[in-house]
From TrEMBL:
Family matches, as SUPFAM superfamilies: ADC synthase
Family from the record: Belongs to the isochorismate synthase family.
Protein name (database record): isochorismate synthase
Catalytic activities: chorismate = isochorismate
Domain Chorismate-utilising enzyme C-terminal: start-end pairs: 122-385
Length: 399
């Protein structure tokens, strides 16, 4: 009788160890499901919009045949269909449990000298909201999400590992990520880094989950005022209507893949350190988990972009965004995450994020414009959403 096959023990890592080991060029992703750190490139996924999930499945199969143990595709995809993407099968993947507050060390942030340029200026952003309201009033749109950008230039190169660690420490429950998105012509490596509160799609076996967010209020230090804002958000007809658009579209898309779907009748409010959001957690069971078209990446691309980051109807909202926003979003409001050989994976919406290249940091934040929106209030909402990254950079008052 042949001897039993040797089982190679898997190394055990702590979440804090993976975070401490992150260096620019690696891929880092953490959520309540666990954390992973990926290094090196075994294969690059080269495919355009509509073909990425199929291409990812093909390179994963080839990597498995080539001896890669439990291969993954990791990376990020930009907002627009023609936008750039950065997807690879890494050479090495290490996994650990979820982050906790005690696990994450405090890290100083070096640079204190910054030049900050809003793009567009706040007044111009408010004018864009007014133009969007005219489109909505004319019946062309039901909703459009308008974003604005802050470009920050530091006196010294920005430490992405320090920024990532500070984001994780501030909110260990967020989906924290850092992905290399360098492109030809970049003067230095470019990293997409952030802490997103919004789960686009998680798949584990036959079970899929999406947690769209839409409708929000800034969070403040006074707890009595926070309770008032939460109650106001739950009672707001405008915010509930905006949220209903998003939840309905997510449910409609997932319904095409699932044998059963659970969609709560009412949203709840969830909080981050800087914001309160209306939230609906939608879960389903796939009709055919073996179908390559129901991998986590395929489902995430089918859902993207939700009305939470684009609008209703999607095509017209995208066109309006292209006409009203002076800055290309790049990877902002796209998706970032991972998918595995069997289709399992996790993808989040790329919000509360920045692209960092040497001394330059580009932040985006958006607000959903619907009938009844107030330009000043939407401008204030984007300022509140900037706080996640600005806090981590030591610049909270700059929004």
């Amino acid at each position: 009788m042949p001897p039993p096959a040797l089982v190679r023990p898997r190394p055990v890592h702590r979440a804090a160890d993976l975070l401490a080991a992150y260096l620019p060029g690696s891929f880092y992703f953490a959520s309540a499901r666990g954390s992973l750190l990926a290094d090196g490139v075994h294969t690059t996924v080269r495919a355009g919009h509509g073909a990425r999930a199929r291409a990812a499945a093909e390179v994963l199969d080839a990597a498995a045949v080539g001896g890669v143990d439990e291969p993954l595709v990791v990376g990020a995809i930009g907002f627009r269909p023609e936008a750039e993407a950065s997807l690879v099968v890494p050479a090495l993947v290490r996994r650990a449990g979820a982050n906790t507050a005690v696990d994450v060390p405090a890290t100083p942030f070096g640079s204190t000298r910054w030049a900050i340029t809003p793009r567009p200026e706040p007044e111009a952003y408010a004018d864009g909201v007014r133009e969007a309201l005219e489109l909505i009033g004319g019946g062309e749109l039901a909703k459009v999400v308008l974003a604005r950008c802050l470009e920050l230039v530091a006196g010294d190169p920005v430490s992405v590992p320090s920024l990532l660690a500070r984001l994780v420490r501030a909110d260990p429950a967020a989906h924290a990520f850092a992905a290399d998105v360098s492109a030809p012509g970049d003067p230095a490596p470019r990293t997409l880094v952030g802490a997103s509160p919004e789960l686009l799609l998680s798949r584990r076996g036959a079970v899929v989950t999406s947690n769209p967010l839409a409708g929000s209020r800034p969070r403040v230090a006074d707890e009595a005022e926070n309770r008032r804002r939460v109650a106001e958000l739950l009672a707001s007809e405008k915010d509930r209507h905006e949220h209903a658009h998003v939840a309905a579209q997510v449910a409609e898309v997932l319904g095409g893949f699932c044998a059963d779907l659970d969609v709560p009748a009412e949203p709840v409010v969830i909080g981050t350190p800087t914001m309160w959001h209306l939230s609906t957690r939608i879960t389903g069971r796939l009709a055919d988990p073996t179908d390559p078209g129901s991998s986590s990446l395929a489902l995430a691309e089918a859902l993207h972009p939700t009305p939470a980051v684009c609008g209703v109807p999607v095509g017209r909202a995208r066109d309006a965004i292209a006409g009203l926003e002076p800055e290309d979003r790049g990877y902002y409001s796209g998706l970032v995450g991972w998918t595995g050989l069997e289709g399992d994976g996790e993808w989040v919406v790329t919000i509360r994020s920045a692209e960092v290249c040497d001394r330059t940091v580009r932040l985006f934040a958006g607000a959903g414009v619907v009938a009844g929106s107030d330009p000043a209030a939407e401008l204030a909402e984007t300022s509140a959403k900037f706080r996640t990254l600005l806090r981590a950079l030591g610049l909270e008052g700059a929004a």
